[in-house]
Every structure is written in structure tokens, then in C-alpha cells.
Amino acid sequence: MLSLLPSASVLAGLVLVGLFAGVIRGLTGFGAALVIAPGLTLFMSPELAVPTNMVAICATNLPLVVGARREADYHSAGWFFAGSAIALPFGVWLLATLPRETLEWAIGLSVIVAALLLARPKFRLTNVTRPFKVGAGMIAGLMNGSVGMGGPPVILTLLASGVPPVTSRATLIVYFTAMNAVSVAIMAIGGLIDTRILIWAAIIVPPLALGQRGGEILFRRGWSNHFRPIAIGLLVATGVVALLH
Fold first, then answer.
1. HEC assignment per residue over 163-194
2. Three-state secondary structure along the chain?
3. How remote is the C-alpha of 72 from its chain's centroid?
4. The pLDDT of residue 217
């Protein structure tokens, strides 16, 4: 078991990445995977970083479902998930087969594009049809399986469709919980999750939960508007560093 534990430098990296990701999630309601996936690739390969990210996110999503289950739009979440279920296996296959350098570039570019899209002024979609939701879910599933960041397509769709914030947040929680659980199952079947991944993910969970609590406190004190541009800037910087690395 001792051989499966991370070194001191990796342990520090896991804690810091988890803490920062938690603060981002507490302030904005999402974005943890946008920090964890590229952050972990700075000191481990994508084949280790993405499954570790998925297990940690899945574990911390489960308690959130209890408070969100009555407010979620299950109709929309179901169509998003249907699209994700189609594309997820192909995304996991890409993770298992693509060269490390290609995956690192994909992770870096994905977090930069996602951060820039989230920074754009609000826009509206007047007619979000079922095929549109399935398509957004397919893109999300492909990204979730391959680079561990499947949130932006679904988040942007919900934000642009004028869904009330409470419903949007609850729908995202239900959708992400289901999608991440399936992602973890597919990765486990594919042999991408072992005891070391589970241990490293367990190390991330406490600082992630602590950071999330701190982010929620800052949100209630009105720090969200000030912190959001800083957070987006840090996400872009993380992506750039991942690319250079």
C-alpha cells in the first residue's frame, strides 16, 4: 500500500488543486473539473489525471443530489444524458489510445476555450430542441471521457436558454452526477481505474469539500462578481501552462 501513496510533491499538488477547484465550484456552482484535469496533468500523465479527476468529482457530486433532486428539470437532464451516453465510450477509447502529448494539448486547449466561452456576455437560445440537447450531450460525453471536462456544452446551453438559476443548478447537478458515474464505470471496465487512482482521488476530496465550503461563504459575502474574472483568468493560465508543459 505504501508504494501506492503519492510522493510529497504530488501530495501537495493534489491538495492544492483540490482546494482551488473547490473554491471555484463554491463561487460559481461549477468548474471543478476545469481546474482538476489540467492541474493534475502538470505532475502526472493524462491517463492518470483524467480518471483521478472523474472519481473525485463523482464522489463529491453524490451528496449534492439530495438537495437538488426536487428542483431539477429531469426532461432536459435526460436528453443531455442520452447524448452523453452515446459518446462517452468513444471518449474513453480516445483517452486509452491517443498519445500523451495529444491528450495534454487537448486538455490545455479545452480549458482555455471553456474559460473564454464562460467569460462571454450572456447570450440567448430561443429554441433549444431535443436534438440540440442530445447534440450538446454528445459533445459533453466525448469531452468527459477523453479529457475529463464535459461541462461547458451543457452549461452554456442551459445558461443561454433562460432557465431559472435554481433549476439550472439542480439540473446540472443531476446530469453531472449521472454522467460522471457512468464515466467512472466505463473507465473501470476499461482498466483505467486502479487502487492508486482511488487513493489519489480520496486525497483530493477533503480539500475539494473544504474549498467548496469556503467558496460558498465568499459567495454569500458578495465576492462572486469580483472573483469570477480572476477565476477565469486563472483557468486560462492553467490551460496555457498545461500546453507549455
1. CCHHHHHHHHHHHHHHHHHHHHHHHHHCCCCC
2. CHHHCCCHHHHHHHHHHHHHHHHHHHHHCCCHHHHHHHHHCCCCCHHHHHHHHHHHHHHHHHHHHHHHCCCCCHHHHHHHHHHHHHHHHHHHHHHHHCCHHHHHHHHHHHHHHHHHHHHCCCCCCCCCCHHHHHHHHHHHHHHHHHHCCCHHHHHHHHHHCCCCHHHHHHHHHHHHHHHHHHHHHHHHHCCCCCHHHHHHHHHHHHHHHHHHHHHHHHHHCCCHHHHHHHHHHHHHHHHHHHHHC
3. 19
4. 82
Q: Which domain holds residue 58?
A: 2-244
| Identity at 155, one-letter amino acid code | I
Which range is least confidently modeled, 31-40, 155-164, 216-225?
A: 216-225
Count of CB atoms situated within 10 Å of the CB of 124: 9
Count of structural domains, the chain: 1
- 226: pLDDT strictly greater than 70: no
Confidence of residue 146 (pLDDT cuts 50, 70, 90): confident
pLDDT tens column, 166-211: 788 788 888 988 998 999 999 999 898 999 999 999 999 999 989 8
* Residues near 43 by beta carbon (within 8 Å), at least 6 away in sequence: 9, 10, 13
Q: Which of 210, 166, 199 is nearest to 17 (CA)?
A: 210
pTM for the complete prediction?
A: 0.78
